[in-house]
Amino acid sequence: MTTTDGLRLAIDIGGTFTDTVLMSAANTVLATAKTPTTPATPALAAIDGAVRVLETSGVHWSQITTFIHGTTLATNALIERRGAKVATITTDGFRDILQIAYERRYSQYAINIEKPDLIVPRKHALTIGGRMNAQGQELAPLNEVAVSDIANTLRAGGIEAVAICLLHAYANPAHELRLRALLRGELPNLVISLSHEVSPEAREFDRLCTTIANAYIQPLMAGYLADIQRRFVEKGLGCPVLMMTAGGGMTTLETAARLPIRLVESGPAGGAILAARLAAETGERQVLSFDMGGTTAKLSLIDDFRPQMSRKFEISRAARFIKGSGMPVRIPVIEMIEIGAGGGSIASVDTLGRVAVGPRSAGSIPGPVGFGKGGTEATVTDADIALGYIDPDRFAEGRLKIDRIASEHALVQGIGTQLLLNAEGAATAITEIVDEAMASAARMHAVESGKEASDRLMIAFGGNGPLHATRLARRAGIRRILIPHDPGVGSAVGFLFAPVSFEIIRSYYTTLQAVDLEALNALFASMYHEAETVVRAGASQGMLTQRRVAFMRYKGQGHEIEVDLGPDPLDPADIAQLSANFEAEYARQFGRRVPGMTIEVLNWGLSLSSQAPALAACPDQPEIRLPSAQSTRRIWCNITDRWQNAAVFLRSHLGKGDRFAGPALIIEPQTTTFVSADFRADIDGRGNIWLTSEQETTT
């Protein structure tokens, strides 16, 4: 097989840059590209990146057999409120689900509390008669006569999309399906999202919010996905387009267009998949994934080679770090914390004379001041340029000229004049603030999960991750860092290691003592069939891996914990083991079990996935060598607080077993790794860079 057989292409459109990776069937990266994102027409940057990697490799579009795409468009549309005009239709008597929400304030003592924007105003909240109970039995028929009046109201209000969320539709969707059919007869162009398809779980508020979010971005994403497919087919692409999902798997373009809410945070999910794979290849069971791009920094925990998962996250929090202040969305998602701390994050001085960084970003247009594309406000990248960490002659493969003087001038004008600092002082203040913000986020994310960040290996990637990794690690107490191959396009590389997968969660309430195993096994069989239809559309051959879980709690509690089930149908003998597994997991999370309590199950989940590419073989430990630096560069040393020479290495010239101490810069096409003076660098048998705290090596 040649390197051009079975080529795989991955494109990740971020807020600042679009990353492209071309990989062979043998999992070898053939070419990469990092191109500025084109916000007005994101597909243009994607095409540009694809053309570059194909030309670099000397291959043709027809040789690509897999194309995987992830985008921030869905996320940005929700955050920036650039979606369709949406109305809701709920069961008669439940018009005010959005206003009632959780019946509590997210900040109890805040007098001027800002409520989250839930997209749909009350005037666009409509209702219809008809009722199902929690068991899916019809208590009252759907009021079909009212549909014409509802259609007239939608037409008069200029509504473009509607979110239908009827009571207990997760147990019986008949009324939602019938209502959609009737509305399409009246309004053929209306975009309709049904709650039982988007989020088939109990909890009306969360289910309605998720359906609203899906309907809100559905017209935009449908147009975007059709545009992507059209442009790439015109170029000569012959394989299907697969989309990365928030849960770390891939799905088809058709499923993505129907359920675009599952594309939210799809880019960062690719980074977590890469980190999990690296953890498995190196045998590291406790990992912190650190992805710092141009707009945001993302951190996630990986235990036993699997990213920490969640079934819920919030969009556009009114108070950035307070749970409950955003719009809840219930979909399978890799759990991570994301803050506005990227290379393009803009620095300012607040009214108390403090330096603040982010969440505003210069993005790709105009970008940091040093890029010379019209930016006027100092950013994190401008600070790194001024401190000498970025080589102007080698940045972005030499295609983007860096103006250090412009960066220094912006730092003085934006920060220095207000705080009486020179460019060096202003740059130091910015980097100290942004690195501490990321370290605080890492500590908080770990503590919220009952874990410790300092015990973990950090895997750092993204355009700015390797540049800030040692500075963040020192503040978080982390002693070991791994920088993989092609870290600047890490999330896109992760796309290529993700399986085609689909996850379904269904509500079926029961206690363990009263569970109807025949009904439960039938539920799992229907879930498997639904998931298999989606997965086989993207992976027509090969074995499929099934994972089944139960979301369990003690009777009377308000939240559940996830407990693994086996892949086989349940029989009566499994119930005792399931009870024991729940109590063991409960004791692990909360320190004790509660004997004698009834155990109940609210939701059941099934995920089905194709086989991921095989792990690379573990090479022998290489013999230690002491390489010579290609050159030196004056940098501001953040340990000694003075200017000094740092050794400069080209990553392409480093070999297995090379070892050297900081301060040093390791330069490669899309990023630079900064080895602080208190860290040591080693190149392992796979070519990964390991950064180890010198304090660790001397103990």
Q: Describe it for me?
A:
This protein is of the alpha+beta class. The chain is 32% helix and 27% strand. It contains 17 helices and 35 strands. Strands 13, 14, 15, 20, 23, 24, 31, 34 and 35 form a 9-stranded mixed beta sheet that branches. A 6-stranded mixed beta sheet has the order 3-2-1-4-11-12. Strands 6-5-9-10 form a 4-stranded parallel beta sheet. Helix 12 crosses helix 13. The mean pLDDT is 90.
Mean pLDDT across residues: 90
The main pleated sheet reads as:
9 strands, mixed
Using DSSP, what is the number of strands? 35
Mind telling me the C-alpha Rg?
Answer: 26 Å
Spatial shape: globular
Structural class: alpha+beta
- Low-pLDDT runs of 5+ residues are none
Strand content: 25-35%
N-C termini distance? 49 Å
How many separate helices? 17
Portion of residues within helices: 25-40%
List the helices and strands and how they pair.
Elements: E1 7-13, E2 17-23, E3 29-36, H1 42-57, E4 64-71, H2 73-80, E5 86-91, H3 97-100, E6 125-128, E7 131-132, E8 138-140, H4 147-156, E9 161-165, H5 174-186, E10 191-194, H6 195-198, H7 204-235, E11 241-244, E12 250-252, H8 253-258, H9 266-282, E13 286-292, E14 297-303, E15 306-307, E16 309-310, E17 313-315, E18 327-329, E19 333-334, E20 337-339, E21 345-349, E22 355-361, H10 380-386, H11 404-419, H12 423-448, E23 457-461, H13 465-476, E24 480-483, H14 490-495, E25 501-511, H15 517-538, E26 544-554, E27 561-565, H16 573-590, E28 599-610, E29 631-637, E30 642-650, E31 659-661, E32 664-668, E33 671-675, E34 679-683, E35 689-693, H17 694-698
Parallel strand pairs: 1-4, 4-11, 5-6, 5-9, 9-10, 13-23, 23-24, 30-32
Antiparallel strand pairs: 1-2, 2-3, 7-8, 11-12, 13-14, 14-15, 14-20, 16-19, 17-18, 21-22, 24-35, 25-28, 26-27, 26-28, 29-30, 31-34, 32-33, 34-35
